[in-house]
Write a structure and sequence with these properties.
Blueprint: H1 7-13, E1 25-29, E2 34-40, H2 60-79, E3 85-96, E4 105-116, E5 119-128, E6 131-144
Antiparallel strand pairs: 1-2, 2-4, 3-6, 4-5, 5-6
Length: 145
C-alpha cells in the first residue's frame, strides 16, 4: 500500500493539529471523487483515558471525524484550498458495525457523491481488517480559515 500523502503532507492540507488530527496517511486518491485514508489507533490515544477505563473503545464520533477529515483532504485538493476548513454540516445514516480497539488500523474510504453550490455530500465507510466498522453519509460546506 503506497503512501500518496504522509502525515507531514496532511498537516499542510488540513488545519487540524495534534491531538485532533485523525488521519495518518492517504493511500489512494484520484483527486476528483475517491480517497482512502489510514488511521492507526494507538493505545495511548487521549480518548482512551475515559472511553472506557478497562475496556478501551475508539469512540464512534471520532470514527466519523476521521472519515470527515479524510473527506476534507479530498475536498481541499479538489478546490485548491489547502489549509482551509471544509465545515462538517451534517451526518446521515451513520451506523456502527464493529468496535474499533487499540492496535486496529482504520481504513477510511470516501466517495464524493455530489458537489454543488459550495456544498459536498460524501459516502464514507471505515474498515478494520476488511470488516465494516462504520458508515455514514456526510455533508460539508464552504471553506473558511
Amino acid at each position: 500500500m503506497a503512501t500518496i500523502y504522509d502525515s507531514k503532507d496532511i498537516l499542510g492540507i488540513l488545519p487540524h493539529r495534534h491531538p485532533f488530527i485523525m488521519v495518518d496517511r492517504i493511500v489512494e486518491c484520484n483527486d476528483k471523487d475517491w480517497i482512502v485514508g489510514i488511521k492507526c489507533v494507538a493505545a495511548n490515544e487521549p480518548c482512551f483515558q475515559g472511553h472506557f477505563p478497562g475496556m478501551p473503545i475508539f469512540p464512534g464520533v471520532l470514527q466519523l471525524e476521521a472519515m470527515a477529515q479524510t473527506a476534507g483532504i479530498l475536498l481541499n485538493k479538489l478546490l485548491g484550498a489547502e489549509g482551509k476548513v471544509a465545515f462538517y454540516l451534517g451526518v446521515d445514516q451513520a451506523k456502527f458495525r464493529r468496535m474499533v480497539l487499540p492496535g486496529d488500523q482504520m481504513r477510511m474510504e470516501i466517495k464524493l457523491l455530489r458537489f454543488r453550490m459550495g456544498m459536498a455530500k460524501v459516502q464514507g465507510r471505515t474498515l478494520v481488517d476488511g470488516e465494516l466498522a462504520c458508515e455514514a453519509e456526510m455533508l460539508f460546506g464552504g471553506g473558511g480559515k
